[in-house]
């Protein structure tokens, strides 16, 4: 199956779940039966909510760009475990990330990676940074691990590296130290990646990595606006049946 609406930009969606404890049934309806079963196996409601939101948003984002029904999409795992679309033959990449009631999904032509992190992680010091990044990247963070600027620099580096690793498909097998970051670009194993990074107030940081030159379009959603989007998709699907 070929997409009728090929992705011409990198579309980035971020969804805030702050203050909401209920999983909208509309979100669950978007998922496959296997995804709903996986969600139900989480013991903590917060984990169940984040999983449901991340996978529903992934389906909605892909369906929007490919002009397909979100429930019709099927997925497989590439070597290394990176999720890929198996229901179309076009080279459409996607990535998802979720943490602490925030979700991010990116869709692009070619490989793409996204990472979102809570910058208020309680334990954060130079030793952890050196283990993760190596001495050179840690030194570039600044002299004072207790400062807000050092913390922000840490997560700017962390999310950039995570996004590149996801886009590349290398995963945790490749040390972050091997990623060269230079402003809005990064290089890993000879592949050059574009970087886009933003703080999401008040306490999250978001990074995106992609290979094919494109503009970034960022859509920010909350519980109500995402539920409305799911409702519109259900109505449109009903019209097309």
From TrEMBL:
<dbReference type="InterPro" id="IPR008278">
    <property type="entry name" value="4-PPantetheinyl_Trfase_dom"/>
</dbReference>
<dbReference type="Pfam" id="PF01648">
    <property type="entry name" value="ACPS"/>
</dbReference>
<dbReference type="Pfam" id="PF22624">
    <property type="entry name" value="AASDHPPT_N"/>
</dbReference>
<dbReference type="GO" id="GO:0000287">
    <property type="term" value="F:magnesium ion binding"/>
</dbReference>
<feature type="domain" description="4'-phosphopantetheinyl transferase N-terminal">
    <location>
        <begin position="29"/>
        <end position="107"/>
    </location>
</feature>
<dbReference type="InterPro" id="IPR037143">
    <property type="entry name" value="4-PPantetheinyl_Trfase_dom_sf"/>
</dbReference>
<feature type="domain" description="4'-phosphopantetheinyl transferase">
    <location>
        <begin position="112"/>
        <end position="185"/>
    </location>
</feature>
<comment type="similarity">
    <text>Belongs to the P-Pant transferase superfamily. Gsp/Sfp/HetI/AcpT family.</text>
</comment>
<dbReference type="GO" id="GO:0019878">
    <property type="term" value="P:lysine biosynthetic process via aminoadipic acid"/>
</dbReference>
<dbReference type="GO" id="GO:0005829">
    <property type="term" value="C:cytosol"/>
</dbReference>
<keyword id="KW-0808">Transferase</keyword>
<dbReference type="GO" id="GO:0008897">
    <property type="term" value="F:holo-[acyl-carrier-protein] synthase activity"/>
</dbReference>
<protein>
    <submittedName>
        <fullName>Putative 4'-phosphopantetheinyl transferase</fullName>
    </submittedName>
</protein>
<dbReference type="InterPro" id="IPR050559">
    <property type="entry name" value="P-Pant_transferase_sf"/>
</dbReference>
<dbReference type="InterPro" id="IPR055066">
    <property type="entry name" value="AASDHPPT_N"/>
</dbReference>
């Amino acid at each position: 199956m070929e997409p009728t609406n090929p992705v011409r930009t990198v579309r980035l969606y971020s969804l805030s779940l702050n203050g909401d404890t209920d999983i909208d049934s509309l979100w669950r309806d978007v998922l496959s039966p296997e995804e709903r079963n996986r969600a139900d196996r989480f013991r903590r409601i917060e984990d169940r909510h984040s999983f449901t939101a991340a996978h529903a948003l992934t389906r909605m984002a892909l369906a929007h760009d490919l002009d397909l029904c979100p429930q019709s999409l099927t997925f497989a795992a590439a070597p290394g475990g990176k999720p890929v679309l198996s229901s179309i033959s076009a080279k459409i990449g996607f990535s998802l990330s979720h943490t602490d009631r925030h979700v991010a999904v990116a869709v692009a032509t070619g490989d793409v990676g996204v990472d979102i992190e809570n910058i208020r992680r309680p334990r954060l010091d130079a030793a952890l940074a050196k283990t993760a990044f190596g001495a050179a990247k840690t030194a570039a963070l600044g002299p004072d691990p207790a400062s807000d600027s050092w913390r922000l620099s840490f997560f700017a580096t962390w999310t950039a590296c995570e996004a590149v690793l996801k886009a590349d498909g290398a995963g945790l097998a490749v040390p972050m130290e091997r990623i060269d970051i230079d402003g809005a670009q990064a290089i890993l194993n000879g592949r050059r990646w574009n970087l886009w990074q933003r703080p999401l107030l008040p306490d999250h940081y978001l990074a995106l990595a992609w290979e094919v030159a494109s503009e970034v379009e960022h859509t920010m959603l909350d519980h109500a606006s995402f539920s409305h989007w799911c409702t519109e998709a259900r109505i449109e699907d009903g019209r097309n049946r």
